[in-house]
Amino acid sequence: MELADSAQEAAFRREVREWLGDHLTGEFAAARGLGGPGREHEEFELRLAWDRHLAAGGWTCLGWPEEFGGRGASIAQQVIFHEEYASIGAPVRVGHVGEELLGPTIIAFGTEQQRRRFLPAIVEVRELWCQGYSEPSAGSDLANLSTKARRDGPDWVIDGQKTWTSLAHVADWCFVLARTGPPGGRHRGLSYLLVPMDQPGVEVRPIVQLTGTSEFNEVFFDGARTDASHVVGEVGGGWTVAMGTLGFERGVGTIDQQVVFRRELERITDLARSGGALDDPVLRDKISRAWIGLEVMRFNALRTLTGVANGTAGPEASIAKLYWATFHRGLGELAMEVAGACGLVAEDAPYRLDERQRLFLFTRADTIYGGSNEIQRNIIAERVLGLPKEARS
């Protein structure tokens, strides 16, 4: 990927910058900088209204083909949009699960009926989605899941439990990986179901985190139903579809993540400057290294996206989770170091935390969820470097 804008890309950058500057005003000005890890509770309704305003302006689902409601934007244009979105301080999006994960999955694997039913609502941010993958005994080892679905006339009936389900408490739909074949089939016999959340048989229980917020949830399915036509891909072929979804997760959406990280580092740097901590050469060196780490993350993401665009994605995608999780956990530790002794005391009773404390506490989970660091190292060793598999009892 060329790092300098072409004339066409420069024009697109001006268009994005001007539109955001004109529209992130008035009621939406209060949304600047809101949202992100551990902060998804912040002004959710205002951010949802902003997402719908983006949709009305044609700024959602940029990379989708035009026939499905997108702009058919190139990878470079999508990166430009995210960069400009970050620089103006626009809020973290609330419809990203549908736009970046489920939508591309339906485009790639879904039927025409599914595309007509679900894609317009994602583009217009009329329906929000959550991901039903992890279970209490099947997190990093996703093929070990036990949630079951059985056919009952025109419906699938789902029984089981999912956990760590981000934003399930505000989602209208969940894409659920469930076992429709015999137990013990591992990757075989799994199906990818689209399940409405607002129905009897679906219970969402928020998980209170160390930050005191609850953006993750447990979801219980007890006889929940979905139409037989809501299977994406083949019945029993859900593993392939699920892996496709995870592949889309490594796409341009990673730029969104770096937007949040860069803002966090900027706020930490501002605190260090105003409080005099930046005068400490050791701390100044750590902040410089964090900035360098972000740049490395950005260039690796651009290299990965170039591979995706050319159909030659390499090991860069495999190392991304390990890198960003370790980086972000370290950023939380840096925030507390800059805060000093004041960081040990809650801002207000009974448990009101400031943003640095929330960052530190939330990032302790980064190296666990979405595949722990240990699992990621095994994957890289075995599938990328070709080393012998770890002995399993």
Automatic annotation (TrEMBL):
Keywords: FAD, Flavoprotein, Oxidoreductase. Residues 8-124 form the Acyl-CoA dehydrogenase/oxidase N-terminal domain. GO terms for cellular component: plasma membrane. Its cofactor is FAD. The keyword Oxidoreductase applies. One of its GO terms (molecular function) is oxidoreductase activity, acting on the CH-CH group of donors. It holds the Pfam family Acyl-CoA_dh_1. Gene3D superfamilies: Acyl-CoA dehydrogenase/oxidase, N-terminal domain (1.10.540.10), Butyryl-CoA Dehydrogenase, subunit A, domain 2 (2.40.110.10), Butyryl-CoA Dehydrogenase, subunit A, domain 3 (1.20.140.10). Residues 236-385 form the Acyl-CoA dehydrogenase/oxidase C-terminal domain. InterPro entries: Acyl-CoA_Oxase/DH_mid-dom, Acyl-CoA_Oxase/DH_mid-dom_sf, AcylCo_DH-like_C, AcylCo_DH/oxidase_C, AcylCoA_DH/ox_N, AcylCoA_DH/ox_N_sf, AcylCoA_DH/oxidase_NM_dom_sf, Mycobact_Acyl-CoA_DH. Residues 130-222 form the Acyl-CoA oxidase/dehydrogenase middle domain. Belongs to the acyl-CoA dehydrogenase family. This is Acyl-CoA dehydrogenase. It comes from Saccharopolyspora gloriosae.
